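Journal club prep — side note

Before the paper discussion, L.F. wants everyone to see what a predicted structure for a comparable chain looks like in token form. Sequence:
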Amino acid sequence: MRWLHALLPDLTLAQNVKGHRFAHLVGDLLETMGYRTRVSPEGPDKGIDIVAFRDELGLHPPIIKVQVKSGEGNVGPPEVQALSGAVGDKGAGLFVPLAAFSKQARDFAEAKGNLRLLDGDALLELLLEHYEELDAKYRAEIPLKRVYIPEPAEEAGEV
């Protein structure tokens, strides 16, 4: 999926939606996916930037605690372990950076079982998939235009 960075560099996101604004973008994306969200106020967040839930009041599982990181550096085990501590053994956690995760971070999350790591490539895929439903201010930050390209007959299933 690295080709996606050539088409839509994450630098655009890193430059336009830094820090707390990135948490709001991820919150808006989760809302387009059917979740209700509460984004933590700016400042210290104790490792949780967003709480996402399905019910109106946010009382019934699944309740997902989300950590975001708008920096460009890869995420290692300490950051993922911090999310794990904030989530606990019975909760669910989602880590969303613009960059990638180290192998050790991915291994840790897989071993825990209740953490999902959504790297920059996967985030861009979801942004493209739900682009039309995003808030207009984010579509203005990430201006895209849908283009249709004819598919060769053999790829379309016709021979």
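L.F.'s comment for the group: The radius of gyration is 17 Å. Keep this in mind when we get to the figures.
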